[in-house]
Amino acid sequence: MTQPAQAKTYPNNWRPFVLSLLTHMFLVLFLVLLGFSASRTGPEGELRHAGIVLTSAKDNQEVEYLSESDLAQESESESETEPTDPATLPPPALAAPKETPDRPDLPGFAPTQFDANDMANVPTESNNKSQYELSEEDLKLIRADQRLVKSRKPVGNPATLNVFGSGNLTGRSFVFVLDRSKSMGGGGLGVIDAARSELGAAINQLEPHHQFQIVGYHERTVTIANRQLLLATDNNKKLVPTFIRNLVAFGATNHENGLVSAIAFKPDVIVLLTDGGYPELNETQLKIMKRMAGPKCSIHCIQFGIGALQTQTNFMTKLAGQNQGSFNYIDVMKWKEND
Questions:
Q1: Residue 154, domain member (yes or no)
Q2: 52/311 Cα distance (integer angstroms)
Q3: Fewest beta carbons within 10 Å, which of 29, 161, 176, 260?
């Protein structure tokens, strides 16, 4: 038997739910309409159409709404203004350095105020006397130095001498190195007596601006007066014969001592007068003599002996050849033949 269908029943609390839903929908719709209405009116109620809206806050806390047309007008007004060339702008003023109160002042310097903008126009000349100008004492010292340098420069023309047939010896200063060993005295070759007249005659040809000196040597050395070059004055020339006459010939020979003493005077010309007795200068000593003499000094050698020269090469020929000099040999037997 078919039972009759039963009707659906609903709970009795559905009405409050529907009313709440409708109320919320109404509120949402009202808020949407209210917001749309506010967006279409300006601060003063004026209706403005805008796509992108920008706001600008003023100092009085008001908010200004800017549209695209407002921005376009502002850009047009800015474009009408002439651009400024940076090159035509005046340079910015430079501020003077600030003084530091706690910085101690340097002794002798007072704080100064200056304008850095004036530094580009520094005067090239000044009438004010500088604190760095030389004093009169400084000027005197400088003049003295100038006179000293001037005195060291070559003065006058050089002289040309000939000693014992040596040929032309040219220079402004001459040093004669005379061997005074026993073999060179009266009991031997008798060169010292001959040198007194020969060297005296040569030195007498010098002018007062020329200089000379004589070095007598064996194991030791001796010179005229002080160990320095002498001006060829009349008084100094008179010292030559007496000096050579007092050279007593004795002892052994030390050629190196005599040459070193002569080179120390830094003359233009050195003339070595010796019989070339032993010990001769070795190769090492010859190199030392060349280095000490330098390129401006010439060394000439005159050897004395009996009979013909035994060898064409000895330390004297090497010494002369290495120092722009000449070599000459004297046979003393010819002196006796002429007497």
A1: no
A2: 122
A3: 29
